[in-house]
Every structure is written in structure tokens, then in C-alpha cells.
Amino acid sequence: MIDLHILRWRHTNPWWHECINSVPSDYFKVHIIKSKEMNYGKARQLGFESGHNDFVSYLDDDDYLTNQAGIEANNIVIMNMDATYTNSILLYDNGIKREYNPVWPHQLIITRRCIATLASVQSNELIKQKNWNPLVFDVVFQNIIQNAFGWHYIDKLLYVYRYHKHGIRNDKDIRIEFRKVREYFGS
């Protein structure tokens, strides 16, 4: 079993039911973090600290898991790797889908709880020290794990990443912040 947290950002989200219904309860214990009023990095850290299973993951409230995500995630846990990420599908507003074969971790990320918790604390400390926008947490988190443990890539389509006009990656200021983080880490 994997503890999976979902940060609940929006009061109204047209994709919420698709998101929550995509999570197979045989393999994931869901923890919903109501994070609208919370610092993003602190909310993510709280999510990684939720539950008691050895492995943790997350799902964004506008994305969803594919039908094979449960059994494949279970196989990843059986392989007993410290930190893994998978391939995903990019879904645009107009309904077009394309395979998103990331060279860098995106989703589905599955890590040991102890690694995620430590990396969360370090990420939030570094964000505060560098005065970065808390929305860059995921990129800082991924770099910290890369530098300390390395990531294992699993070539399976398990996550559908919704790219829409309201997503944070469409915000010019956030893209500048992402660039600063990547330059800092040399990634």
C-alpha cells in the first residue's frame, strides 16, 4: 500500500471526480490535504507525512491516474527502489493527448516515506533561504532527491497530466522561478 496525497486547491474543480475516482483503493491510501490557504511547500510536506506506509506518492487535483497505475505502482513497491518516477500522458484543454516522456521526474512519483519527508523539510528550508516562490517546491524536491539518492525511471504510462490555462506552469513569473531553481541545481 502507498500513501498518496492530493492537495485540494480549488473549491470548484471540474476534474475533481475524475481525479479521485482514478485512484485504486487496493493499492493507494488517499489523504486529501485542503491546501487552499496553505503554503504549497508546507502542504506538500504535510501530505508526505500523512499515513504510515513505507512508500508515498501524490496526485494533483486536476490530474488523474491511468487504469494500470495501481498494479504497476504495486510492482514498483515490490522492486523496493528508493525513488521512482514514470512516464505520463499530457492532456491539453482541447482534448489532444500526447505521451510525455520526461527526462526529469514528474509523475507518478513513488518514494520511500523517509526520503520524501527529509527532502520536503530540506526543500522548504532552501525555498525560504533563497526567497523562492513556494510553488517551485516540486522542482526543488525532485532535485534534492536526485542529488542524494538518484531517481529510477519506469517507462509506464501511469499518470495523466492536465495542461490547462489555469495551471501554474502557464504563469510567466513561476516559469522564471523554475528556471532559477534549475540553474541553482544545474539541472
Write structural notes for this entry.
It is a single chain. This protein is an alpha/beta fold and 187 residues long. It has one domain: Spore Coat Polysaccharide Biosynthesis Protein SpsA, Chain A (Alpha-Beta Complex), CATH 3.90.550.10. 38% of the residues lie in helices and 28% in strands. It is built from 6 helices and 8 strands, in the order βαβαββαβββααβα. Strands 1, 2, 3, 4, 5, 6, 7 and 8 form an 8-stranded mixed sheet that branches. The protein is globular and about 40 Å long.
CATH level-1 class: Alpha Beta
Percentage of residues in DSSP E strands: 25-35%
Fourth-level CATH superfamily? Spore Coat Polysaccharide Biosynthesis Protein SpsA, Chain A
Q: What helical percentage do the residues reach?
A: 25-40%
End-to-end separation:
32 Å
CATH architecture: Alpha-Beta Complex
Order of helices and strands: EHEHEEHEEEHHEH
Q: Tally the structural domains.
A: 1
Structural class: alpha/beta
CATH topology label: Spore Coat Polysaccharide Biosynthesis Protein SpsA, Chain A
Find the count of extended strands (DSSP E, 2+ residues): 8
Rg, Cα atoms, Å: 15 Å
Number of helices: 6
What are the low-pLDDT stretches, counting only 5+ consecutive residues below 50? none
The whole-number mean of residue pLDDT values reads 89
